Amino acid sequence: MSEAVRAATAAAKKIAAALPRFPQEDLPAILAAIEGVLASGRLILGPHTERFEEAFRAYVGCEHAVALSTGTAALQVAFRYHRIAGREVILPTNNFIGVVGAAIAEGGIPVLADMDPASFCMDTEDAIARITPRTAGIVTTHIAGRIDPGIDRLRAVCEDRGLFLVEDAAHAHGAAIGARKAGNLAPAGCFSFYPTKLVTTGTGGMITTGDAALARFARTVRHHGAGPGGLDDVSVFGNDWCLAEINAVLGIFQLKRLDENVAHRNRMVDRYRARLGAEAWLSIPSHPADVRHAYYKFPVLLREGIDAHRFRRMLWTDHAIENGAIYDPPCHLQPVMRERGFAAGAFPKAE
């Protein structure tokens, strides 16, 4: 067998950890819409962005949705709106480091909280215990597509103490508690449309909110602070955080497929549960019946004593199954955070 054939065979057998899905039947309409964008010359802030925002707003059930260039930009806009510079922001350590980076970029002081081992989301009581007079707000993340079970308590505490609450919904497109969808469970939600997500635009993000002032602010700062008079009417410094029209086209079609994709993921997880549920060497977390898990990832816990790194390598080298961890290391053990004084032992549940 030639090396080229061997490589092609290996690629065909590989089970990807994430693969953007654009069904064949959608491609003619997607390509026609992209051709229309190129012919129009309107590459940002055009009708496709408006359609995507409106469709996403309606899907989530909120009053406003503002498209941005990345999920990180969505977080930074929310942080800038809430004026976190010099103030503390409570965040889960079991999370993507970019969320902490967004807070630091806006001058905030990250205060990390431990993990709830049952849900992998933030430990609600630990987060509340870390509130001080310097706290500006809290960010909670729906890890792997599982709604944070403490979201309603966090919202009540934040409202009572005058703090902001942001849902980091980067994993949670289509997730819900009953009829309430992720992105509409707090005053603001931030989504990512990175290539691995359940809705991808290649790169992109969205803020969902019921706060009209936040929505206006987001629309202004995403285009260098342009006011009603455009870039000749700048009253606040912004950035180049616009979602491109071509990316918005992808988002419109991806959103149409979201519910069927989430349903498919849940069916696959049911098969995993049926085949692996009795195994002693791992456990599969459960969730209440009224919670719709989006399964951005399918997390399992290995029995104590199993070398997780060796297991992950074996899945890849012996079976060509891509896999990951959420998150290893947690934020406080990343080198950039160790330089800021964080150390092992601070958050034992996450570790």
Biggest sheet: strands side by side, in what order? 1-9-8-5-4-2-3
Q: What about the largest sheet?
A: 7 strands, mixed
Helix content: 25-40%
What percentage of the residues does DSSP assign to strands (E)?
A: 15-25%
- Helices, by number, come to 12
Task: Determine the N-to-C terminus distance.
Answer: 45 Å
Radius of gyration from the alpha-carbon trace, in angstroms: 21 Å
Structure description:
Helices cover 38% and strands 15% of the residues. The protein has twelve helices and 14 strands. Helix 2 packs antiparallel against helix 9. The model has no long low-confidence stretch (mean pLDDT 94).
Characteristic terms for this protein:
14 strands; globular; single chain; alpha/beta; 15% strand; three-stranded antiparallel β-sheet; 351 residues
Brief summary:
With about 350 residues, the chain is an alpha/beta fold.
Q: How is the secondary structure organized here?
A:
Layout: H1 3-13, H2 27-40, H3 47-60, E1 64-68, H4 71-81, E2 88-92, H5 97-105, E3 109-113, H6 124-129, E4 135-141, H7 151-161, E5 164-168, E6 176-177, E7 180-181, E8 188-192, E9 205-209, H8 212-221, E10 226-227, E11 230-234, H9 245-256, H10 258-276, E12 282-283, E13 291-292, E14 301-302, H11 308-319, H12 335-338
Parallel strand pairs: 2-3, 2-4, 4-5, 5-8
Antiparallel strand pairs: 1-9, 6-7, 6-13, 8-9, 10-11, 12-14
